């Protein structure tokens, strides 16, 4: 693997070749347009990556031979990340090849704090048909970033998937490969009374099957066990809003438990 940081003119600022496990240390302030790039020896690989001290480490599946993370230096994009993320003049990035036990363990397969809006290079990846005002604090990716703070709305740590009051709002999580899934957890945004909530939602699967679930006005994660399915995406849709005064239901986290299929 080769890990590097490039600027908006495609100039390599620093790079390092890595075998099974390694790091890159960059001693300079990130500038607008800088990006982290990982080049793989082979396409379609799982990697474990931590792109900043303030970000959680995660296992992602890269479908091609190159993955790039566009550093969120614009103010709108930074609002959905930890305040200290990507800041200062010292940046430590680590990457490794995860073991088979790590890759194929039973876990939350939707978890991906480095998912990027409308970029399908790495999985899991969240995509939606609406995101409130195209603001980063309401992007679909926020629903799979692992941040459970839901008793507020807006800037980190209260980023969420916002639907802009759209009746047919839907969010889909792609896994990049076949997975077996059988358990789900949903954290509704619970900034009451500013927020409303959904009383019902439908989970649709890539195999054509569907499950209707009942939701409650609750700040805690709500868990749902279901028949095991082998799929490559899951979509939450047909969201039924409660009959209350607030027009603002939103989703803080969607967790999808299962295993990748070998």
Automatic annotation (TrEMBL):
Database matches in InterPro entries: Galactose-bd-like_sf
Domain of life: Bacteria
UniProt-recorded name of the protein: Carbohydrate-binding protein
Species assigned in the record: Jeotgalibaca ciconiae
